[in-house]
Amino acid sequence: MLxxxxxxxxxxxxxxPAPASAADGPIGFASVNALGQNGTTGGAGxxxxxxxxxxxxxxxxxxxxxxxxxxxxxxxISDMVTVVANKSILGVGSTAEITxxxxxxxxxxxPGNNVIIRNIRFTNAEDDSISVTNKAHHxxxxxNDLSAxxxxxxxxxxxxxxxxxxxxxxxxxxKAMLLGHSDTYTADIGxxxxxxxxxxxxxxxxxxxxxxxxxxxxxxxxxxxxNSLYGIASTQNxxxxxxxxxxxxxxxxxxxxxxxxxxxxxxxRRNVYVNSGAPExxxxxxxxxxxxxxxxxxxxxxxxxxxxxxxxxxx
Length: 315
Prior knowledge:
Elements: H1 2-15, E1 33-34, E2 37-38, E3 47-51, H2 54-61, E4 67-71, E5 74-83, E6 87-91, E7 97-105, E8 115-118, E9 121-123, E10 130-132, E11 137-142, E12 145-147, E13 154-156, E14 161-166, E15 169-171, E16 178-179, E17 194-197, E18 200-202, E19 210-212, E20 217-220, E21 223-225, E22 232-235, E23 239-243, E24 246-248, E25 254-256, E26 265-269, E27 272-274, H3 302-309
Parallel strand pairs: 3-4, 4-6, 5-7, 6-8, 7-9, 7-10, 8-11, 9-12, 10-13, 11-14, 12-15, 14-17, 15-18, 16-19, 17-20, 18-21, 19-22, 20-23, 21-24, 22-25, 23-26, 24-27
Antiparallel strand pairs: 1-2
């Protein structure tokens, strides 16, 4: 009898689909060979350090060279901690947390290229929880939980490029994700190639993302629920492909243009809209498949898959 129960349990586990972010690397733009960087490897091969204090985090995140920083427990910081190139910042177990401040990938003189951030809870940041900025490229932000910040939970801006944002949970906040610094920051043209997949936007109000200038911006297999202002906004001639997502109770799932910003371009396909409004679309968009291979999940399965797989403690 025990053998039959164990066999049945093993069969059920085998039937559960694996998360779409591989343990050894990202899907999407962070996987692309470009700008002298073949995919995103973070601190692979570097020194491993267990981080238990804010002072340690600020020290090691700013050191030159490759490091794997393992965040253990709750770490209190203030303002933004600068993260420079070739770092993996990984939460231990399901209780790793950075609170009070956030991580800024790169400065104007020290680039934040080839960085991985995974399995960490971010709360109560004084500014952004995570800011990918200052020409940072090849960044993978995966399986985090972000809430209750002051400004953006996860912004990508100022000529950053080749970024994947996957399997994160966003909640208890208004402005989730900005892509592009401002309507007048035209240096972002030709940059800001970002993949957003299998994220859970649970009750956040807006910016999932609000995109400026970038193309292609690839938004696939995300779960949008109870987003009061809008889901996605494409502005300032951004080119956004929205496919295979599930929108539930979202009155304005996709905007073309928003507020004072000029319109962008949007192609949408195979999305599900439950108790939601009609999406706005315009123009054409470069296919992300010209950069990387990916597999689209059936959008009807997205709520269950994303709720089961997104956030901390799932890798």
